[in-house]
Amino acid sequence: MNSITINNLVKNYEKFKLDNVSFNVNKGYITGFIGPNGAGKTTVLKSILNLIKKDSGDIKLFDKDLETNTHLLNDVGVVLEYQYFSNDWTPIDVEKAISNYYENWDSNTYINYLNKFNLDKDKIIKDFSKGMKVKLKIACALSHNAKLLILDEPTSGLDPVARDELMEILQEYISDENNSVLFSTHITSDLEKIADYIVFIKNGKIIFDGEKDDLIEKYLLIKGGLNSITSTEKKKIIGYREYNTGFEGLIKSEDKINFNEKLIFEKVNLDEIIVFLNKEVHYEQH
User: What does the pLDDT read at residue 81?
Assistant: First the structure.
């Protein structure tokens, strides 16, 4: 069973379009959702959560059509980037406001997470740091026995220790193989630690959907001196850029045999893949 199944999702705006987006979030796994700013990540997440109306396509939660089964959203925990609590509320006020929306709200779990995150239940949110506000959202998302967590920039504003705590919580959350996470973030080092799958969106289109390790192994970073590469080789480089002392870019691993073996080839991380694929300009000779 898939926790999320999206087929040919389309959403049109004046200057942007989700273009037949399709991907799955597998049950029991963490799926990272990556792409440059403006790629369409938040639009996809809002479509899944029924916060905006799609133009066409199908969205299923737990193998059931969302349009006719909106009650399934009760089984989804959500952390969005924007602030959706009143600044005058305390965490206790937050619980009073949202607990009635979830059939399986667990007050004891909520209090336990407040304590774990060192959040004063009687302090008003206005006096919370950005990181504390993120922790409060996470506490809410994890307090109603959700089968699926949808996280939009959940680690933004958190210090390294708090981020590491969250990674542990997410790994514990999926350990029973029944729960799933869709995790959208610009902090790709977090995904490199815990994600099983990656969905990469660019300009409203999915350009990769598969296992994280397959994406990382698909590309290599290539470097060398300006005089050590031919114009033919340059044409195969993605995001080619020159410096005073040399060049660098991205190539497909399978293309390595077409390059001078004296060039430098290095493994890439997710950040580098996003940066170079976002350029998406292969070298052109002028």
Answer: 76
Lookup result for tokens 């206790």: 92
Please say which residue of 150, 172, 203 terminates a domain. 203
Residues 6+ apart with CB under 8 A from 54: 9, 10, 11, 18, 47
Q: Are 63 and 72 spatial neighbours (Cβ–Cβ below 8 Å)? A: no
In this predicted model, what pLDDT tens digit does every residue of 56-81 receive, in sequence order?
999 999 999 999 999 999 999 999 87
SS3 for 190?
helix
Rounded-to-integer distance, Cα 9 and Cα 3, Å? 16
Average pLDDT value over all residues in the chain = 90
φ/ψ bin of 157: left (φ > 0), alpha (ψ from -120 to 50), beta (otherwise) = left
Encoded tokens for 44:
């996809």
Structure tokens, 202: 């660019």
| pTM greater than 0.85 | yes
Model confidence pLDDT, tens digit, residues 169-201: 899 899 988 999 999 988 888 999 999 999 999
- In three-state secondary structure terms, 132 is helix
Structure-model confidence comparison of residues 84 and 229, the more confident one: 229
The CA distances from residue 286 to 103, 167, 228, 234, 243, in Å, are 64, 47, 19, 12, 18
Question: Of 158, 176, 203, which closes a domain?
Answer: 203
| pLDDT beyond 50 at 9 | yes
Alpha-carbon gap, residue 89 to 41, rounded angstroms? 29
172 and 251 both lie in a single domain: no
Task: Select from 130, 127, 134 the least CA-distant residue to 151.
Answer: 134
Tokens of 197: 């799958």
186 and 254 share a domain? no
Place of tokens 């350009």: 207
